[in-house]
Amino acid sequence: MSRRITFHLNDDELGQIEYTMNHSPLPEVRQRATAIRLLHLGHSPEVVAEMLAVAPSSVWNWHRRWRGGGVNGLANASKSGRPRKADAHYLRVLEQALDTEPSALGFTFALWTINRLRHYLAEQTGILLSYTRFRALLSKHGYVYRQPKHDLSALQDQDARAAAAELLDWLKKTPLNPPTHPSSSSLWTKRP
Length: 192
Fold this sequence. Notes:
The chain has eight helices and no strands. By secondary structure, it is an all-alpha fold. Helix 3 crosses helix 4 and helix 5 (88-99) packs across helix 6 (114-125).
């Protein structure tokens, strides 16, 4: 004797489904919650599948996942795969490198570029990410590249700079004397 499957939801379950339909940040969970709600309203799995443009087996699977795990069961499970190369240790070394001037680490350059940073991290961690993957990692963790502001003050003679600043202040305070003879730069003159 076969057991008849009921798609009826109690008030609490219906409230959870309706909240999920309207507030879940995951579109697949909203779609699956909508399917569960349509089943509750009396539509057959085949009709719901046609309404949502999916296979009927998908609707049956969603219902089974709903009964097994509730709203959390409607979300996609994390997929297994190759673990990320940039682990927590890699990210700590990255953060330390970005907080440190390259010259303090013994380098002759003053600014980190993506390739310099990539290769430094490869030396420190043994992990060399591709240029594209490394840029994506920096972006994901909120690091942005700013164009450096070129400042040559470190190359200037500080005594000469102080003397020039003093001379400039003196020139600003000294009033200009009006010329005693007419300007030769004008083509217009007044007759005597």
